[in-house]
């Protein structure tokens, strides 16, 4: 049975034919307050913690693992961009929903030329700017330092404000747009999703990429069905659906999400076929999507050294004087693996952390080349990929929850050796 509501017949027609709005977006939910203000207040109120405090967190390895995923994703598409660009040309990046600047070092290591940081939370943008200035100061003190990249900072709701109008150079052409753990907020409404995708695509050059990470809505719906309750989770994360009314809407399918020490915010399910169709309207073709556990399997050997450097896995059994981050019974998978493989130690995540990590997926879109204009003056794009998802009509809007529930590969991933190797 379908689990996503077939909205009025003109909804999908709007997705493929309406022209994006200029300036700020007015959400159709008025007079109810938009979720954006809640999100901004939440992230503005988050306390900035030093490295020592972050390392005491119950989810320190989960956060490090998520950072490893982001690093591998950024490195993967930066390599593709550099292959297609003449040597010496500066690479320009938009970090959409940049937060406190947690990816600044990733951009420095990627050797980009210019970075635009945009976020709804003014306090977060201030901290991002401060981190950037500190990084630049350290580089200047190093006599062998690389010149680094220039940056600009924008406080704006990326789901409601046209970022191009805030750029220092409105003719800016971007090579890469990154949106990490934030894209799902735009599926509060169709106008907000339109605005977010316009910001991602509008200044992206043909052949450039829009990459990101977000919750896998199919997985969330599958867990909801398995739990037979609108509230489910574990000691690390909790999800509570706002409504159990079936099927779910295309936009505004709201749920509460809490993650220990980090997030306690309302979010929205992203129906991927709808996202793909909406993205194509803006000249973006989906070239890759995979769940975190699948992405890890593909990239674990190439990124093994970085896994150790970033301490993305916890060593089991732990060394003397270094207690486990979770309870002993959260590592039964690791104990069984050690016995089976006859190895001394493994690097892994606790089961609750892995269950939280496996909620997420990575995605990558490529900007297509506009080859002509339609009768209304809108660009018509050339499809470049041979593995483009099917163009068949998505009239059923299924979440594919039943398919996900049948999968058995839900156990945490592991690497032989301790987490530092």
List the topology elements.
Layout: H1 11-17, H2 35-45, H3 51-54, H4 60-84, E1 92-96, H5 104-109, E2 114-119, H6 122-141, E3 150-155, E4 174-180, H7 190-201, E5 204-215, H8 217-227, E6 231-233, E7 237-241, E8 254-259, E9 263-268, H9 272-281, E10 284-291, H10 292-299, H11 304-309, E11 314-316, H12 332-341, E12 346-348, H13 351-357, E13 360-367, E14 369-373, E15 379-382, H14 401-405, E16 414-416
Parallel strand pairs: 1-2, 1-4, 2-3, 4-5
Antiparallel strand pairs: 5-13, 6-7, 7-8, 8-9, 10-13, 11-12, 12-16, 14-15
Helix pairs in contact: 1-9, 4-13
Number of domains: 1
Number of helices: 14
Helix content: 25-40%
CATH class: Alpha Beta
Give the helix/strand class: alpha/beta
| Parts with pLDDT < 50 across at least 5 consecutive residues | 1-10, 17-23, 25-32, 385-399, 401-408
Q: Per CATH, what is the topology?
A: Rossmann fold
> Can you say what the CATH homologous superfamily is?
Vaccinia Virus protein VP39
Order of helices and strands: HHHHEHEHEEHEHEEEEHEHHEHEHEEEHE
What is the number of beta strands? 16
The pLDDT mean sits at: 84
Computed over alpha carbons, the radius of gyration is 22 Å
């Amino acid at each position: 049975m379908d689990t996503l509501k077939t909205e009025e017949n003109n909804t999908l027609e709007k997705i493929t034919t309406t022209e994006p709005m200029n300036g700020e977006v007015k959400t159709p939910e008025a007079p109810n307050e938009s979720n954006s203000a809640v999100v901004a207040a939440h992230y503005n109120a988050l306390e900035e913690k030093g490295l020592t405090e972050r390392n005491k967190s119950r989810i320190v390895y989960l956060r490090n693992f998520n950072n490893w995923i982001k690093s591998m994703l950024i490195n993967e598409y930066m390599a593709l961009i550099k292959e297609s660009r003449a040597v010496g040309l500066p690479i320009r990046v938009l970090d959409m929903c940049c937060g406190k600047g947690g990816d600044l070092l990733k951009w420095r290591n990627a050797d980009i030329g210019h970075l635009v940081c945009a976020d709804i939370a003014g306090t977060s943008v201030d901290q991002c700017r401060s981190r950037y200035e500190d990084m630049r100061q350290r580089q200047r003190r190093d006599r062998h330092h690389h010149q680094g990249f220039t940056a600009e900072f924008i406080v704006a709701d990326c789901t409601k404000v046209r970022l191009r109008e805030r750029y220092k150079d409105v003719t800016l052409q971007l090579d890469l747009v990154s949106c990490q753990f934030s894209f799902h907020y735009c599926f509060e409404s169709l106008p907000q999703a339109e605005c977010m995708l316009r910001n991602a695509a509008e200044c992206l050059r043909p052949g450039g990429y829009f990459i990101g990470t977000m919750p896998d809505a199919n997985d969330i719906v599958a867990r909801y069905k398995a739990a037979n309750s609108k509230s489910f989770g574990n000691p690390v994360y909790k999800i509570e659906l706002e409504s159990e009314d079936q099927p779910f809407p295309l936009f505004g399918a709201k749920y509460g999400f809490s993650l220990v020490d980090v997030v306690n915010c309302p979010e929205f399910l992203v129906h991927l076929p709808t996202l793909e169709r909406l993205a194509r309207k803006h000249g973006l073709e989906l070239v890759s999507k995979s769940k975190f556990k699948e992405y890890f399997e593909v990239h674990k050997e190439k990124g093994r050294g970085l896994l150790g450097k970033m301490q993305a896995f916890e060593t089991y059994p732990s060394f003397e004087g270094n207690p486990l981050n979770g309870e002993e019974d959260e590592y039964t998978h690791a104990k069984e693996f050690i016995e089976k493989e006859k190895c001394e130690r493994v690097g892994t995540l606790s089961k609750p952390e892995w269950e939280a990590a496996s909620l997420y997926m990575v995605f990558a879109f490529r900007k297509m080349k506009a080859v002509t204009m339609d009768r209304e003056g809108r660009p018509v794009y050339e499809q470049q990929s041979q593995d483009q998802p099917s163009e068949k009509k998505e009239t059923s809007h299924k979440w594919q929850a039943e398919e996900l529930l049948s999968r058995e590969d839900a156990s945490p991933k592991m690497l032989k050796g301790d987490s530092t190797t």
